[in-house]
Design a protein that fits this description.
Elements (H helix, E strand, L loop, with lengths): L1 H17 L6 E3 L15 E9 L23 H4 L2 E6 L5 E7 L5 H15 L3 E3 L10 E16 L4 E13 L4 E13 L4 H23 L7
Parallel strand pairs: 1-4, 2-5, 2-6
Antiparallel strand pairs: 3-4, 6-7, 7-8
């Protein structure tokens, strides 16, 4: 009887720490706003944003993007996948997606655009709006993933972002990274959202720090 009771208590603790891990989760991520307070008279044309993350069915570690067998390889699903829930024993459970109004491409576009606003640039992703002297950028999303690190009584939600920003002329390449650790008591929606938003805020700081040398000071 004591063993049964101990097992029930442990199961309850695991449930409280991880939340309902079996269900899918959906998040809408608000990207911090920036305004062009000091225009520099230049424009950036973000020509392309590609999601180059590689998903696995059964990754060796939870920081590797993963999806279920039916979802793996479906680009309409993968572009919105940002995390995988796990139970207290580390087993992969329900996935977490951006809601239907967002994708990892749209979130990164907003983050880079708003960062460039902070540097004084006008920004567009439409070819017909691009000026002849605009700085042309291509962006690849190398990492955009959150995962749980379980402790004995608490947990931590980590988020890693990485993009490669290629400027066509003058030819420059910038790798922008952000990695945030969010200690928390439960793996609920609010804590997942907080971890991702903290990473995006840090990512934007890195974008501004690395791209402030443009157009010809790098």
């Amino acid at each position: 009887m004591a063993k049964v009771l101990k097992g029930l208590i442990l199961s309850a603790i695991v449930f409280l720490l991880t939340g309902c891990a079996t269900n899918r989760g959906y998040l809408n991520i608000s990207v911090p706003q920036e305004t062009i307070s000091q225009p520099n008279g230049m424009q950036v044309y973000i020509r392309s944003i590609e999601d180059k993350r590689e998903f696995q069915l059964r990754p060796s570690t939870p920081d590797i993007p993963s999806l279920g067998k039916k979802e793996l390889g479906d680009q309409t699903v993968q572009c919105r996948a940002i995390a995988r829930k796990r139970n207290g024993y580390g087993k992969a459970m329900g996935s977490i997606f951006l809601d239907e109004t967002q994708s990892v491409q749209s979130v990164i576009y907003d983050a880079v655009r708003n960062s460039l606003y902070g540097l004084g640039y006008e920004v567009t992703d439409k070819q017909e709006e691009a000026k002849t002297d605009a700085l042309v950028m291509d962006i690849s999303i190398d990492k955009f993933w959150s995962w749980i690190n379980m402790g004995v009584w608490t947990l931590r939600i980590d988020t890693a972002l990485q993009t490669t920003i290629s400027v066509v002329k003058p030819a420059k390449t910038f790798v922008i990274e952000a990695y945030i650790k969010n200690p928390c008591q439960v793996g609920n929606t609010a804590n997942w959202r907080k971890a991702i938003r903290l990473a995006i805020t840090d990512y934007m700081t890195q974008v501004k720090a690395k791209l402030k040398c443009l157009p010809d000071g790098c």
